[in-house]
Amino acid sequence: MDRRKALKKAGLIAGATITMPSMFSLLQSCKNESRLDWKPLFFTDIEAKTVALLIDMILPKTDTPGGLDVKADIFIDKVIAKSYDEEEQKKMRSDITEFNAGCKDKKGDIFIDLKESDRIEILKEAEASSGKYNPGVWGTHVGEQEPIGFYRSLKSMAIWAYFTSEEVGKNVLSYDPIPGVFEPCKPLSEVGNRWSL
């Protein structure tokens, strides 16, 4: 299966989990941020670079935009700054510190300063060892959720940011805006049957 088809299928799943309208406004505000003058609201410089590099490796640019092209890192920073409580913010910060400490123990340096082959090994290990999300029904996990860890949590947020971006929504996925275009003077003959809701 090529990447475009996989992204379209994954988009259906990601789209079904979006429940907070305020997150849409955060995502829309990210598209106006310039990559050159962006200053994180929550992340430190090293944290922002770590998150950006992870997103770029998880969702690289191919024939479709990458995670950084749609500013998923800026979106995640805004979500954490504006919707996480103090305890959740501390947890995110300690998770990034712990991730970088693990990189240093295994490969000798923090993630952003590793060579690419070492970064790939770190991500493969993180993918294999991270907890998995339980299946869900309408946004609610079924059963007791095991801890998923920093990598899986960030990956999930990056995919969410990616699929809810306007760029991906309009140019990668099938796009049918709701409620649709308002046509006040359309002849009844063009409408056909009544529409069910």
Tell me what the structure shows:
- This protein is an all-alpha fold and 197 residues long.
- It contains nine helices and two strands, in the order ααααααββααα.
- The chain has one domain.
- 56% of the residues lie in helices and 2% in strands.
- A hairpin with a 2-residue loop joins strand 1 (136-137) and strand 2 (140-141).
- Helix 2 (21-30) crosses helix 4 (72-83) and helix 4 packs across helix 7 (149-163).
- The radius of gyration is 19 Å and the shape is elongated.
- Residues 12-20 have low confidence and may be disordered.
Quick summary:
This protein is mostly helical and 197 residues long.
